[in-house]
Design goal:
The complex is a heterodimer of chains A (687) and B (289).
Chain A (H helix, E strand, L loop, with lengths): L2 E14 L2 E14 L3 E5 L6 H9 L6 E10 L2 E2 L5 H7 L4 E4 L3 H4 L6 H8 L8 H14 L5 H4 L9 H13 L5 E5 L7 H18 L2 E6 L2 H7 L2 E6 L2 E7 H6 L4 H9 L48 E4 L2 E4 L41 E11 L3 H7 L5 E12 L4 E5 L6 H8 L7 E6 L2 E2 L5 H4 L6 E4 L13 H11 L7 H11 L16 H13 L5 E5 L7 H18 L2 E6 L2 H7 L2 E6 L2 E7 H6 L4 H9 L50 E2 L5 E2 L12 E2 L2
Parallel strand pairs in A: 3-8, 3-9, 6-7, 7-8, 15-20, 15-21, 18-19, 19-20
Antiparallel strand pairs in A: 1-2, 1-4, 4-5, 9-10, 11-12, 13-14, 13-16, 16-17, 21-22, 22-24, 23-24, 23-25
Helix pairs in contact in A: 5-7, 7-8, 15-16, 15-17, 17-18
Chain B lengths: L2 H18 L2 H18 L1 H4 L31 H36 L2 H16 L2 H12 L3 H28 L2 H9 L3 H37 L11 H10 L6 H28 L8
Helix pairs in contact in B: 2-4, 2-11, 4-5, 4-7, 4-9, 4-11, 5-7, 6-7, 7-9, 9-10, 9-11, 10-11
The chains are: A alpha/beta (687), B mainly alpha (289).
Chain lengths: 687, 289
C-alpha cells in the first residue's frame, strides 16, 4: 500500500531554562494512504509535538534537530514558509481538541468556511456557500442552509466539533490530523464523532492521523497504532496486533491499567509506578527501563533492538538479542503489571445503619434573568432547574457514584449538598440533622465531617501557598489547637504517600497526580466521614489514575469513609462504587447497585451510557447505529415529558406528556422510565 | 526526586538573570537607587545649606563652587535639588503606599462583595477619576491654604481609583475559581479568603503599577509646587525650583534645566523599572516580542 506520510528519524528539542528538553528522539513511522493511524501516549510522551512538527507549527523555542517528514515526494521540514502555507489547510488540515477555542467567535460559520477557501480565486461567494452547506450536511448538521449563518456560540459542543470537522474537510485534504478530537465531549457525543470520522474517511478516502490518550477511541477508530513513550516510538502495528498481541512492556502495561479492560470488578487497579524520566539529561538504554515491570540491569545501559514483525516494530530487549525471553510476551490474560493483592470485592454486609447523607427531593434553581427583564420579556418563571427532585443516600463506609454527562447537574448537586449553593426545595440530612436551611455559622462545624475534592487538581489549590500551608489549612480554619502543625503536615503527607520534600513546593510545581494527592490530604485533614469527590480522576493519565483510586480505597478501608464520587467516567466508577445514580438533565433517571446497573440497565439512557463507552478492543467495535443520536438539550428548554424522550430509541407517545415517576424495581434498584427495559417481577410504586 | 524543586529555584534565578541582563531594567534600577540615595543622604552630600543665602554670588552660572549655579537669592541650586528630592521621595513613598493599600482594600471589596456594593464603589471611583487633578487641587487649596499635607491628600485621593480598578478586576477573575470555592467548602471565612488567598494573587500586578505610578506622583507634587499650591518657600522642592527658575529664565536658564533633569531621570527610572518588572513577571505581557 502506498505511503502518504513518512516520518523518519524525527528529533525535536525544546530550549528551556533547564537546558534542552529532547522531546522527540528518532521518531519513525509510516502513514499508509487511506488508513486511520492513532498515536497514543500519556502526557509528556510528545504525541502532540509529532502533530505540530508535521504542520511546521512548533512553538518558538522548539528546534528540529534531525529527521525528515516525507509527504507527496517532498520533505515537509525543508519547505519554506510559502510552501508550508500552501500545504496547510489545502493538503493537510487539522481537527482541534477544543472547538470552543479553535473557532472564531465573532464570525458566522459561512464566513469562516468561505475564508478557508480563500485560495480558490475562481469560486464565487455563492459556490463557496453551497460547498460549505454541503459539507455541513455531510457531517450531520441538521438544516445546514440556515444554520450556516450561525455563530459558534449558537452551536452546542458536539455540533461545534462537527462543524470543526466540516471545516477541516472543506478543502478535500489528503491528510487529516486530529488532536484529541473527542476529549472535550461527552460519552454519547464521542461515539457519534467516532462514527462520523470513520464514515467520512471511507467517503472521501482521506488519510487520518489521530492523537489521543484514550485507548477506547484508538481501538474503535484506528487501523494502525503508534505507541509513544517519553518521545520515543516504543511499538507500532496494526490495531489488532497492538490490542491483542502487544509486545512492548509499556503497551502491555497501558492496556492492563485501563479500567475499561479490567473485567473483574476490583477495588484495586494496577498502576505503572514512577514518572516519565527527565528528558533534559543524558539518556541511555531503554527509555522505559525506569518504570518497566520486566526491567533487567542491562536495560538501563543498552539501547533496545528494533524488532520487526508483520505490521510494525517494537523496541525491547525481551524480544531479541542476548536478553531475549522466549516466554515474552505472555498471553493477554496473564497480568504483567504487579497488582496489589486487593480483596476482589469487599463483600460489604447490607448495612441496616441509617444513611450518613440523605438527600430528599432536592431542587436547585438558577435565575436566568433579572426580575425586571423577565417582566419586560413576558417570562413568567425566569429560572432553570439545574437539579430536579433528586433523592439520594450514602451509607457509612459506602461509595456512591453519581454519573452523568456535562450539564446533568451532578456538580451542582455536590455543591448544593455542601451548602455552597442555595437550595430551592427539598432537604439534605447529614447524620440525621437537617442541614439545608442552616446558616454558614451553624454549618461550619459540619464542614469538618464533609470534605470535597474538586475537579481540577491544580486549579483547586491556592497558587501562592506552599503544600505545607495548604494541607494544614483546614486545621487552622477550624481552630484546632494543641497539635503540632508541622507534625500534622507530615502525617497527612505520609497518609497520601506524598514525599516530605513536596511540602515546601507550590501548586504549579506539582504534577496532576501529586496535586491530586494534596487535594486528598486537604480533604482528610479533619478526619471527615464523607468525601464528595468531583471527577477525582479527571485530567490524570491512566497509570496515575489507578494510584489515586487505590489510595482512596485504602483510606476508605482504614477510616471507614463514605464517598460520593461525581464522574462521567463509567469504566472507573464500575470499579469503585457500591451503588450508582445516573443523572440526566438534573434528574436521577436510575439508581441501584453497580453490578445491577451495568448488567441490567432499566432506563434507555443508562443503557446508552453503558454501551456508549468505547471498548478498548478493536474486535468489539459497535455498529454505528448503536450510538444514540442528539445531544443533551438545554436546561432552558426542558421538555414537558421525559427529559430523554427526544433521544430515546424506545420513545412512545406517553413519554412526551408527563415526567415519569421514580419507580423501585427492587428495594435497591429504582428508575424513572415509563417503559423500562428491565421489567421487575415485583414492581412497586413508591411515588 | 528533587528535580522539580531545583527547577523552581532555577526558574527564580533565571528570572533574576533576565532582569539583570535587561538594559532597561538595570538603567531604571540604577536611576531609582540614585534618586533614593540622594534624597536620603541629602544633608550629608549637599555642599551648602539649601536655604543659606549668598547675595554676592546670586545667579552665578554652574561652576566648581556651585555645580548647578545659584538662584536669585544666591542659594546653591544643587543643594536645593538634593533637598527637594527628599520632598519628592516622601510624597512618593507615603502617597503611593497609602493609595496602594486603600485601593487594594476597596478593589477587593468591590470585586468580592455583593453586586450593589461593587456598583457603588465603581461609581465613586469613576467620579474621582473624572476630576481634573489640578483643578481639584486648586479648589482644595482655596479652602485650606497651601501645604504639603494637602498635596499628599490630593495625590492619594486621585490615584486610589487606578489601583482599585486593577485590584477589582483581578479579584473578579479569582472569585469564581475552583480554589476559592475549595476554601469556602473548607469553611474559610470571607476575611481569610480575601487576606490569604485573594490578596497574594492580586498583589503582583499592583506592585508593578505602583512602580509606574511613582513618577506620576512626583510630577503631581512638582506641578502643584510650581503653581505655588504645594510646599511653602523657602523650603526646596523640584517644583519650586522650576518656578523660581522660570521667573529668571532669560537671565539664568540653567536653573530650569537643573530643576528639570532630576524629574526626567526619576520618571525614566521608575518607568523603565516598572516595564522591566512587568515584562518578566507578568506572563501575559511581552510574550513573543
Amino acid at each position: 500500500m502506498e505511503t502518504l506520510l513518512d516520518i523518519r528519524g524525527l528529533s525535536v528539542g525544546f530550549g528551556t531554562s533547564r537546558g534542552r528538553v529532547k522531546a522527540l528522539r528518532d521518531v519513525s513511522f509510516p502513514v499508509r494512504k487511506g488508513r486511520i493511524v492513532g498515536i497514543v501516549g500519556e502526557s509528556g510522551s510528545g504525541k502532540s509535538t509529532v502533530l505540530w512538527s508535521i504542520l511546521g507549527l512548533l512553538a518558538g523555542n522548539a528546534k528540529v534537530t534531525g529527521g525528515e517528514i516525507g509527504f507527496e515526494g517532498g520533505d515537509l521540514l525543508q519547505l519554506d514558509a510559502a510552501g508550508l502555507r500552501a500545504a496547510r489547510g489545502e493538503k493537510i488540515s487539522v481537527v482541534f481538541q477544543d472547538p470552543m477555542t479553535s473557532q472564531i467567535p465573532v464570525l458566522p460559520y459561512v464566513r469562516q468556511m468561505a475564508d478557508i477557501l480563500y485560495r480558490r480565486k475562481g469560486m464565487s461567494a455563492k459556490d463557496k456557500r453551497d460547498k460549505a452547506v454541503d459539507m455541513l450536511r455531510r457531517v450531520g448538521i441538521p438544516d445546514p442552509e440556515t444554520r450556516i449563518d450561525a455563530y459558534p456560540h449558537e452551536f452546542s459542543g458536539g455540533m461545534r466539533q462537527r462543524a470543526g470537522i466540516a471545516m477541516s474537510m472543506l478543502t478535500g485534504p489528503n491528510l487529516l490530523l486530529a488532536d484529541e478530537p473527542t476529549t472535550a465531549l461527552d460519552v454519547t457525543m464521542e461515539a457519534q464523532i467516532i462514527g462520523l470520522m470513520r464514515q467520512l474517511q471511507s467517503e472521501f478516502d482521506t488519510t487520518i492521523v489521530v492523537v489521543s490518550h484514550n485507548l477506547g477511541l484508538i481501538a474503535e477508530l484506528c487501523d494502525d497504532v503508534v505507541v509513544l513513550y517519553a518521545g520515543e516510538v516504543v511499538e507500532t502495528g496494526a490495531v489488532r496486533d497492538i490490542f491483542h498481541n502487544a509486545r512492548h512492556p509499556y503497551t502491555r502495561a497501558l492496556l492492563e491499567c485501563d479500567p475499561a479492560r479490567i473485567e473483574d470488578v476490583s477495588r484495586k487497579l494496577p498502576v505503572i509506578a514512577g514518572d516519565i524520566p527527565d528528558l533534559t539529561g543524558a539518556l541511555a538504554g531503554c527509555i522505559y527501563a525506569g518504570r518497566c515491570q520486566r526491567a533487567m540491569p542491562d536495560c538501563h545501559a543498552l539501547a533496545p533492538p528494533v524488532v520487526h514483525r508483520g505490521s510494525g516494530i517494537a523496541r525491547c530487549h525481551l524480544l531479541e538479542g542476548p536478553l531475549a525471553d522466549p516466554d515474552w510476551p505472555p498471553p493477554m490474560e496473564v497480568p504483567t503489571v504487579p497488582r496489589e493483592a486487593g480483596t476482589p470485592v469487599p463483600a460489604r454486609p447490607r448495612t441496616v445503619q441509617p444513611p450518613l447523607l440523605e438527600v430528599r427531593d432536592l431542587n436547585v434553581r438558577f435565575q436566568t434573568m433579572g426580575p425586571v427583564r423577565a417582566r419586560l420579556n413576558g417570562v413568567k418563571d425566569p429560572f432553570v432547574d439545574a437539579v430536579l427532585d433528586v433523592s439520594l443516600s450514602v451509607r457509612p463506609g459506602e461509595t456512591v457514584g453519581l454519573v452523568g454527562e456535562s450539564g446533568s447537574g451532578k456538580t451542582t448537586l455536590g455543591r448544593a449538598i455542601l451548602n455552597l449553593l442555595k437550595i430551592d426545595r427539598g432537604s439534605v440530612h447529614f447524620d440525621g440533622r437537617e442541614t439545608s436551611a442552616m446558616a454558614e455559622r451553624q454549618f461550619k462545624p459540619l464542614r469538618r465531617d464533609m470534605a470535597m475534592m474538586f475537579q481540577d487538581p491544580i486549579g483547586s489549590l491556592s497558587p501562592r501557598k506552599s503544600v505545607r500551608a495548604l494541607i494544614t489549612e483546614p486545621l487552622t480554619i477550624h481552630g484546632i489547637s494543641g497539635v503540632d502543625i508541622d507534625a500534622e503536615a507530615e502525617r497527612l503527607a505520609d497518609m497520601v504517600r506524598l514525599p516530605h520534600a513536596f511540602l515546601a513546593r507550590y501548586p504549579h510545581e506539582l504534577s496532576g497526580g501529586q496535586a491530586r494527592r494534596v487535594g486528598v490530604a486537604r480533604a482528610l485533614a479533619l478526619n471527615p466521614r464523607l468525601i464528595i469527590a468531583d471527577e477525582p480522576t479527571a485530567g490524570l493519565d491512566v497509570s496515575v489514575q489507578g494510584e489515586i483510586l487505590n489510595l482512596m480505597a485504602d483510606l476508605q478501608a482504614e477510616h471507614g469513609l463514605s464517598y460520593l464520587v461525581i464522574t462521567h467516567n463509567l469504566p472507573v466508577v464500575r470499579h469503585i462504587a457500591d451503588r450508582i445514580a445516573i443523572m440526566y438533565l438534573g434528574r436521577i433517571v436510575e439508581n441501584g447497585p453497580t453490578a445491577d446497573i451495568f448488567a441490567n440497565p432499566a432506563h434507555p439512557y443508562t443503557r446508552a451510557l453503558v454501551e456508549g463507552v468505547p471498548k478498548p478492543d478493536p474486535d468489539r467495535r459497535r455498529p454505528e447505529a448503536a450510538a444514540i443520536g442528539g445531544e443533551v438539550p438545554s436546561l432552558i428548554r426542558r421538555p414537558p415529558g421525559c427529559d430523554f424522550a427526544a433521544r430515546c430509541p424506545f420513545v412512545q407517545d406517553a413519554c412526551r406528556t408527563a415526567k415519569p415517576p421514580h419507580v423501585q424495581i427492587t428495594p435497591d434498584h429504582g428508575h424513572a422510565c415509563l417503559f423500562p427495559l428491565k421489567q421487575a417481577n415485583q414492581t412497586t410504586e413508591t411515588t | 526526586m528533587d528535580v522539580r524543586r531545583e527547577t523552581a529555584r532555577r526558574e527564580r534565578r533565571d528570572k533574576l538573570m533576565r532582569f539583570l541582563t535587561n538594559w532597561q531594567g538595570m538603567t531604571g534600577l540604577v536611576l531609582v537607587i540614585l534618586f533614593i540615595a540622594s534624597a536620603v543622604f541629602a544633608p550629608w552630600i549637599a555642599p551648602y545649606d539649601p536655604n543659606a543665602m549668598n547675595i554676592p554670588a546670586r545667579m552665578s552660572p554652574p561652576g566648581w563652587d556651585h555645580f548647578a549655579g545659584t538662584d536669585q537669592l544666591g542659594r546653591d541650586t544643587f543643594s536645593r535639588i538634593l533637598h527637594g528630592g527628599r520632598i519628592a521621595l516622601m510624597i512618593a513613598a507615603i502617597g503611593v503606599s497609602a493609595s496602594l493599600v486603600i485601593g487594594l482594600a476597596l478593589g477587593m471589596v468591590a470585586g468580592y462583595g455583593p453586586r450593589w456594593l461593587d456598583n457603588l464603589l465603581l461609581m465613586i471611583f469613576d467620579a474621582v477619576r473624572s476630576f481634573p487633578t489640578i483643578i481639584l487641587a486648586l479648589a482644595t487649596v482655596a479652602l485650606t491654604g497651601p501645604s504639603l499635607g494637602v498635596v499628599l491628600a490630593i495625590v492619594i485621593i486621585t490615584t486610589i481609583p487606578s489601583y482599585a480598578r486593577v485590584a477589582r478586576t483581578a479579584t473578579l477573575a479569582l472569585r469564581n475559581t475552583e480554589f476559592i470555592l475549595a476554601e469556602r467548602a473548607l469553611g474559610a471565612s470571607t476575611l481569610r479568603i480575601m487576606w490569604h488567598h485573594v490578596m497574594p494573587n492580586v498583589m503582583g500586578p499592583l506592585l508593578i503599577l505602583a512602580a509606574m505610578e511613582v513618577p506620576v506622583v512626583v510630577t503631581i507634587e512638582a506641578g502643584l509646587s510650581f503653581l505655588g499650591l504645594g510646599v511653602r518657600p523657602p523650603q526646596a522642592s523640584w517644583g519650586t525650583i522650576l518656578n523660581e527658575g522660570y521667573l529668571v529664565i532669560r537671565d539664568a536658564p540653567w536653573m530650569v534645566v537643573a530643576g528639570g533633569i532630576p524629574l526626567i531621570l526619576t520618571t525614566l527610572g521608575f518607568t523603565f523599572l516598572g516595564e522591566a518588572l512587568r515584562d518578566i513577571f507578568d506572563p501575559r505581557m511581552g510574550r513573543g516580542r
